[in-house]
Design brief:
The complex is a heterodimer. By secondary structure, chain A is an alpha/beta fold. Chain A has helices at about 45-50, 80-85, 100-110, 115-130, 135, 150-165, 180-195, 205-215, 230-235, 240-245, and strands at about 5-15, 15-25, 30-35, 60-70, 70, 85-90, 170-175, 200-205, 215-220, 225-230. In chain A, strand 7, helix 7 and strand 8 (about 200-205) form a beta-alpha-beta unit. The longest helix of chain A is centred in the middle third of the chain and has 14 residues, at about 115-130. The N and C termini of chain A lie far apart (about 35 Å). Chain B has a single domain (about 5-215), classed as Methane Monooxygenase Hydroxylase, Chain G, domain 1, CATH 1.20.58. Chain B contains six helices and no strands. The longest helix of chain B is centred in the middle third of the chain and has 35 residues, at about 75-110. The radius of gyration of chain B is 19 Å and the shape is elongated. Classes of the chains: A alpha/beta, B mainly alpha. The interface of A and B includes residues 208, 211 and 252 of A.
């Protein structure tokens, strides 16, 4: 099951550049939450702070607190543990090109020392089913490489790979922006299905996509979280003029 | 991603609706003048204008539909287009009420004039003023002005109720005048409906400007 995320006074820097400024919000469990805003507004930095990927950059720095469920991820917890509990899917599908479909999905578990072959078979099948890819690849699991799939299939393969380690939170950074409309629809349907089991945070430039998949939406601008509210409120009657100006195309 | 062309299209939509609203407003004025003067020429003018109003209604709906499909508007723009679609229907119905009135005027023309104790011109002035004010609030995006229209509707309703009582009594007591009284009763009813359409337009303006649904006496939000 998914867990809630509580962010308090989160600040992030790249060198001297202050990219996130005092962000506080609560992301509810088992909901999809969309983050929107113009390029460079801080939304991707924000999700990278949720699984401590931001600090992988040597000049990056973070202050504040992020709680994933009861786990305070910036205090005494290994990033490896965190990334097992918080999966991430990126803009461009990145399957391991030389691995089979099966091995791609199994890779995270194997890295964690999982060796039970029968259980591995079950988990790979379950993950591919959850990612709505099983029916399309079940006959080629070990024969075809991940790279042989279409872009949309590759992205669902990456989602399956993420789900295989059974995370509680799924972060998605523009997961459909490189995909055609049919593949995009499949990813969106998948998000809808998955939120009953996971907490999903999705960064998107596509506001219609945010409106379609997310119950809550946050609008970022210049490192600030300007507004966070129910998606229907944000897209029909936002409280802040800056949100309205952005989503109606009056700036950006 | 500023959307200059889209916002120009919204202006075009508003302008087209105002052209149509002007035609409907004129039709109501002419229809009540036709009643007052027993003027069949004015009746002709009202009926001749109706196809133009109907054509504009279809054009506005099509333009609004195109913008919804092609531009996927959000927030105030989405509310504006929804308001336009609904105001469009109400304005077209105002035009229909004018046609209904002149049909009754034509029937009245076949009978000798009667002095019925119902002040149709006053009722017409009030409902016409509601339409004008509702449209002005739309032009100015003025929710406060739109709210003032809502309070005027009670007066028109009261006048219609009074007409119903007075003319109902004539129909019962003076069968020879029943047809005449019935025609006037229908005209009063048409004017009361014009007031209702003005109220709807005002409510849609409030929804557009404030994002608040005030229909059916819900409280207004700011």
């Amino acid at each position: 099951m998914g867990v809630g995320i509580e962010v308090k006074e989160l600040n992030a820097w790249y060198g001297e550049t202050h990219t996130l400024r005092s962000i506080s919000l609560k992301i509810p469990a088992n909901h999809a939450t969309a983050l929107i805003g113009p390029s460079g507004c801080g939304k991707s930095t924000f999700v990278r702070c949720l699984n401590r990927m931001h600090e992988t950059n040597p000049i990056a720095r973070v202050t504040g607190s992020v709680k994933i469920g009861d786990l305070d991820i910036y205090h005494g917890v290994s990033p490896v543990v965190i990334r097992r509990r918080i999966g991430m899917v990126f803009q461009l599908p990145n399957p391991f090109p030389t691995m089979s479909i099966f091995d791609n999905v199994a890779s995270g578990l194997r890295l964690n020392g999982f060796r039970n072959k029968k259980a591995l078979d079950e988990i790979v099948e379950r993950s591919l089913r959850r990612a709505a890819l099983w029916d399309e690849v079940k006959d080629d699991l070990r024969r075809k490489s991940g790279a042989s799939l279409s872009g949309g299939q590759q992205q669902r393969l990456c989602i399956a790979r993420t789900l295989a380690v059974d995370p509680e939170v799924l972060l998605m950074d523009e997961p459909a922006s490189a995909l055609d409309p049919i593949s995009t629809a499949k990813i969106e349907d998948l998000i809808f299905e998955l939120k009953s089991e996971y907490t999903i945070v999705i960064v998107t430039h596509n506001m219609q996509q945010a409106a379609r998949v997310a119950e809550n939406t946050g609008f970022f601008l210049n490192g600030h979280l300007v507004e966070f509210d129910a998606t229907t409120k944000i897209f029909t009657n936002p409280s802040d003029k800056r949100t309205e100006d952005y989503i109606t195309g009056r700036f950006g | 991603m500023t959307r200059i062309r889209f916002h120009q299209s919204l202006d075009d939509l508003k302008e087209k609706l105002l052209v149509m609203a002007g035609m409907a407003e004129q039709a109501i004025e002419r229809s009540t003048e036709a009643y007052r003067l027993r003027d069949l020429n004015l009746c002709d003018q009202v009926q001749a204008a109706e196809p133009g109003i109907n054509r504009l209604e279809r054009e506005i709906d099509q333009l609004a539909l195109d913008l919804l499909a092609m531009e996927q508007p959000m927030a105030v723009d989405l509310r504006f287009i929804l308001a336009v679609i609904k105001i469009n229907a109400d304005v077209e119905r105002v035009g229909d009420q004018a046609v209904n009135i002149v049909e009754r005027v034509r029937d009245l023309y076949t009978m000798p004039p009667l002095d019925v104790p119902v002040d149709i011109p006053r009722m017409a002035a009030l409902s016409g003023s509601m339409v004008r004010r509702a449209l002005q609030s739309f032009i100015d995006a003025d929710a406060d002005m739109a709210e003032s229209v809502l309070t005027m509707d009670d007066q028109v309703d009261a006048m219609n109720a009074g007409a119903y009582k007075t003319l109902g009594a004539i129909i019962q007591e003076k069968p020879a005048q029943a047809q005449y009284a019935l025609d006037v009763l229908f005209i009063a009813r048409n004017l009361e409906r014009v007031g209702d359409h003005a109220t709807n337009i005002a409510e849609d303006v409030i929804f557009w400007v404030r994002g608040a649904d005030v229909r059916h006496h819900l409280r207004t939000g700011s």
